[in-house]
Amino acid sequence: MEVTIIVRRKRVFVQQPVAILDSGVGGLTVAKEVMRQLPLEKIVYFGDSLRAPYGPRPAEEVRKFTLQIVDYLLQFQPKMIVIACNTATAVALEEIRQLVDIPVVGVIHPGARAAITTTRNGQVGVIGTEGTILSGAYEKALKSISPSLEIIGLACPQFVPLVEQGLSGQEDTYRIVSECLQQLTESSIDCLILGCTHYPFLSSLISEVMGPNVALISSADETAREVSTILYHKGLLAKRIQKPVHQFLCSGDPELFRRIAEQWLNEEIKVNSVVWQVTRIG
Amino acid sequence: MEVTIIVRRKRVFVQQPVAILDSGVGGLTVAKEVMRQLPLEKIVYFGDSLRAPYGPRPAEEVRKFTLQIVDYLLQFQPKMIVIACNTATAVALEEIRQLVDIPVVGVIHPGARAAITTTRNGQVGVIGTEGTILSGAYEKALKSISPSLEIIGLACPQFVPLVEQGLSGQEDTYRIVSECLQQLTESSIDCLILGCTHYPFLSSLISEVMGPNVALISSADETAREVSTILYHKGLLAKRIQKPVHQFLCSGDPELFRRIAEQWLNEEIKVNSVVWQVTRIG
């Protein structure tokens, strides 16, 4: 079935939450940066861990899942939606922008912008899921702003499962990362876009493999900065006296999600499982 | 007299220029970053070098000058206005936002946002002109986003004249910079906002004085990134095959302006003097 979404409210209030969605725990890298850069903003986070990874799925399926989650999250009356998943951004960002009347931020343009700011030799690497790399979304975003850039894209399908299973600290992980990135270590790129929000979990390994002359660009930092810019320009920055209480929702095992999330965010959280509410639509 | 401004055009086209204004050559630090980050964007730059520096002037006077320049620049049908002067941003940004129906970007919020992203210990220094520091605009911008920050503001009225006279490379300059910043070198700030677009001309000296543990935040980089973000979100990024030809205008001595500008931008430019057109209004 087709999903149609409309935000019916006429006014958006500054105290409403920022909704962040991802295929699983990867978007927590964005959520953590939003918490740090915008400590007064309340977050409602949704991780579709039951159906992660999105990377190998057909674009049409990812599109439908993303629309379902946006539809679900609208019940929280967010003032902004952040699609903190590169695969979902590549296939659904523009459509969602048309469907809702609140700002929608993806993770691809912020990463592209940061790479343009960072590169000195104009040679930029991008790693992501198959879905993201195949879509050519980074290449398009980069070239639309700065046509003379040279871009090398590389799909790393092994990375997301490592993170979703909570294995990013294991010994084998270095070997897998190093083998995947071999082609890039032999290139002359001077910056590498981590084109998947799961990858910052592996950033110290990736940095070790790529060496000190390649700057890593995390979509997370940059997306949080874009969230801040847009909220400011729309007059939507929250005003609060107390630290807000965030909400975490996932479609998969809430215990596994909580364990990974608490380790990454460095604070205790409560996770609600919401399998039924989301999958009823599909 | 009061200045009233209205943009009458109904449609904004992507090929229209980005207008950048400053009290003099300081905004060239922003222009240079816009050229680097957005090589397809055409720039119309106005430096009010006849009346620089703005820092020691009464707020009402700076406000009037800024409105005059915006009114003048509207003849170029810009798709965006960048107030690349902290003093002018502090007193006139909100008013200009009300008066025109194109996006208006200032330099204070981008700098504040970058400092929030950069600081680890929450202690942030701000240097600027008397006008900027007295206005408390940075403190307000920083605290509105992250209330727990500790901020030390310091006016450095000596810096702008050094830059406008093209003396930033001279021997005496180190002594002046070092004396001005003494109070900050004795503090525990871990990042310092260069809260005046002239200061990047002095950044290697400032960095030497402050030492390696204090990150310098240039409004220029951050403002260019904000320009990029807003143009993207408004669907206003330029589409061009050739490098655009920029326009430079100043109210003071065009030769002095050209000399400083060419050194900073590292390319040849043509500068038009436009004293009469601007000052006729005041």
Question: How would you describe what is shown here?
Answer:
The structure is a homodimer of 282-residue chains. With 282 residues, the first copy, chain A, is an alpha/beta fold. Helices cover 44% and strands 15% of the residues of chain A. Chain A has 13 helices and 10 strands. Chain A has helices at residues 28-37, 59-73, 86-99, 108-118, 130-135, 137-145, 159-164, 171-180, 182-185, 203-210, 219-233, 254-265, 275-279; strands spanning 18-22, 43-47, 80-83, 104-105, 123-128, 150-155, 191-194, 215-218, 247-250, 271-273. Chain A has a 6-stranded parallel beta sheet with strand order 4-3-1-2-9-10, sandwiched between helices. Chain A has a 4-stranded parallel beta sheet with strand order 6-5-7-8, with helices on both faces. In chain A, strand 9 (247-250), helix 12 (254-265) and strand 10 form a beta-alpha-beta unit. In chain A, helix 2 (59-73) crosses helix 3 (86-99). The radius of gyration of chain A is 18 Å and the shape is globular. The interface between A and B is medium-sized, with 26 and 26 residues.
Provide a brief overview of the structure:
With 282 residues, chain A is of the alpha/beta class.
Please specify the SSE layout and strand pairing.
Two copies of one chain form a homodimer.
Chain A: E1 18-22, H1 28-37, E2 43-47, H2 59-73, E3 80-83, H3 86-99, E4 104-105, H4 108-118, E5 123-128, H5 130-135, H6 137-145, E6 150-155, H7 159-164, H8 171-180, H9 182-185, E7 191-194, H10 203-210, E8 215-218, H11 219-233, E9 247-250, H12 254-265, E10 271-273, H13 275-279
Parallel strand pairs in A: 1-2, 1-3, 2-9, 3-4, 5-6, 5-7, 7-8, 9-10
